[in-house]
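Quick one: structure for this chain?
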Amino acid sequence: MKTNIIKGIILLLASSFATTNIFAATETGCFVIANTEANKTQATLGSKNNPYSSLDDVQADTSCDVIHVLYSDTELDGQIILRDGQKIFGKKGKNGELPVITNSLTPYWFGSLDGIAVVLAKDNKLKNLHFKDTQNTSILGFNLAQPVGGKIDFDNLVVSGANQAGIVNPLSAVGSPSLTIISDEDMDVSINNSDIGQANVMSLYVSLENSNGSVQIKDTIIHDQAQLSSDNPEFSPGIFIIASGSSDLAVNIKDTKVDNIGSNYISNSDGLLLLNDGTGHMEASVDGYHFTNPDGGGAIWSSTGIEMGFWDADGGGSFTGIVKNSRIDGAYQTGIQVVNGPSGGNNTLNVELNNNEISNSGRGIWLLNTANPYSSSFVDIRNNIISNSTRFGLQVGAGMYNGPMDSLEIMMEENTIQNSGEANIYLEQGVDPIANVQVDAGLGSLGSAGKNRILSDGTTETDIYSYGMTISAINNWWGSATGPETIVEENGGVVDVEPSLVIDPLHKGKK
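Got it. Here's what it folds into:
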């Protein structure tokens, strides 16, 4: 459903853009300031001593390759359609204030360029700027507006209050995101030290189709994102990165935070959504990510801290991911959701979850495996702490909706799963069971040493529930030397826990 919505956005945009802007590249710079009284000297117009007073002036200067936006108390109102290699650098105020660019021109239909502050091309760089209260998307890169690709760098940007006009795709009721890049050219996108959000639309959307590239996001915060209306509350992620067609895409998320999204209405508000929708390869690394949800938004559908894998994919693709050293608190549905979902089959998924802390979420980790035949999943879960999930600490769903997969392998080692509401571990085979399922939480076929700490403060209904699935959970600590309190085996489910550890592995060797 998610990818169909975005495909609808792309198709409608494609029908709207028909022209391409072509400029000759140069190495000269020019200056602009939002101050109509600036032009008082005899210096060359566009120089630092006699800067342009509008982005229209800059657009008309075909010799300007580096645009310097000087700080002013007045917002610079307008639009710049960049050419290949062009850069925009803000010059800060005396106290470090960023120059502000807005666009108050109201767009009257979805797909219009009106109300957009910057239209990207190839090899652009934007630095030290605040894009504020634009009527449409603040920054747009879209290959049908003009070719976009190469190296696209964003450094120290603030993007707030985008899409003031409430522009919505009429086919999906999804609002135009704050920052949007859609390309079928090879592309490397870098977003560093930036602040995006404070708007009623998705914050960041990057889509790569039939091409190769990378997306790196570092030291960035996505926050206070809501929705335009409650008409279609199903889709409102904070960061959405998708590869489609034959694309090969590497994604690196480092020391980035998503905070308080989906806050106005019930919504499907995944903090970080990474999907391979095609036949190529996506490799995703998430390190030092932090998700919080203080307003409790996102009370529908997935609404995760992180969701990654395949959903509604063409089939034949591969996905490799790692999430480590990350903290997720208060995700309404799931802290980390790994999906090998409905597709054309032949998907290969390999994900590692290592040294993460997940708390106060509906589920700590949810492994959803419903891909069509000839698909396989391997998930390695180790050194994580999962606490106070309202439903399940770990949930595994297999073959539940769209036909059986070939293989599902899950290895768990040295995790702490504690104080879940319904079950610390919940396993379920669906109506189309997977033939080769191996869940090794200790001394099973995949080589896990166990040493998991599966604990309850007395409120957890079940330690392990298994419906039609076998799990080896030997050599684990259950809070006492007597082993687990409650195990439920239904429809052929088998839970093997003996022998259990008789001492907490965290306290081993201590007196």
